[in-house]
């Protein structure tokens, strides 16, 4: 092995080697069926590579998408495809790649945030990312519970091939996104990519199906899911795995879950992207049968503190001075006065004393409204300098819906 490490931006021609490298880093092989699929969403100009003697040994991809935040939708650098060859680990390759990705995104001046899903939660805090949203993974024993009630008159469910109803589900997704923080926009070929349904993505399950919920106003919700037949000593033991479920109305939400948990021959329904504030446990006959376990999902790295603070909305009027520390992007360091009331938000640098002091990582956790300032203060991650400031911050940064990221990108 040589030690001729070079950091560079990718080109289109790097794609085949890059794809093999990423699969290897994730302990997988390139599947003939899925080969080239990721090319649909590959942005070579935003992809950083580390090469050793010309061969790729490290990668980090940035994808240009927006993210819903409390009261808005903002450009956010979506970081993904981070992988370092096993032969080159723990020598600072990830650090070099991450610095290059964040510097490029910061330099654009248009993306106040970077976001990612972490393969392992221990990795990204050191780069200023804060864990900002959570998910509930359900494993529902359908024999032990059911969703109460019935759908209203005139409502109906329609089971279809996902690709045949793309326009309808895109419209639902885009409407839900304006109400719920943490969702990523799906520009360009994203929907085509996500619904391509190659065999390699099925992991022993069926092709993807979609069920739509419609009322007099049109489609109000959908669930994309796969099924698997199974037989045990006591009869059928089938499984449903939900890829994504989004609903605009309470009726759509209940009807979709009622459908999924009552399919004949199915004994288990799994879904890994439930929001923490999902009303489902309150709608079933026995919430214990949902077996939900919570885990982290989206990590947020604030790249531009005043820009990020100005672009979201606040749940309560607030006038507070945040004393922020950021060792990587030092322009963020300092005291920022945030004054917000309804739709008016003003952020300015100030010499006034800080009401609270926090690192940019804690600000990332706070940002989407899914982690309260009180929680962070209790952990020593926010220091209160003015009495009552943490309570005011908690009220202002909270949101009526918690963030959820429904897609591991
Ligand atoms: C957004 C995404 O794409 S998530 C996917 C991340 N990729 C994977 O999980 C694939 C398998 N793993 C890998 O490819 C590599 O091990 C990586 C990318 C996680 C780390 O790459 P490396 O080049 O070894 O990291 P690097 O040497 O730059 O380490 C930087 C720091 O992170 C720490 N670190 C790196 N990996 C881990 C880990 N898995 N768990 C805990 N700490 C870690 C290092 O100890 C080091 O700490 P220090 O700053 O205190 O010295």
Automatic annotation (TrEMBL):
Domain N-acetyltransferase, first and last residues per copy: 5-149
UniProt entry tagged with the keyword Transferase: yes
Key words of the record: Acyltransferase, Transferase
Superkingdom per UniProt: Bacteria
Active site (UniProt): 124, 409
One Pfam family hit: Acetyltransf_9
Subunit and partners: Homohexamer; trimer of dimers.
Membership in a protein family: Belongs to the acetyltransferase Eis family.
Name assigned to this protein: GNAT family N-acetyltransferase
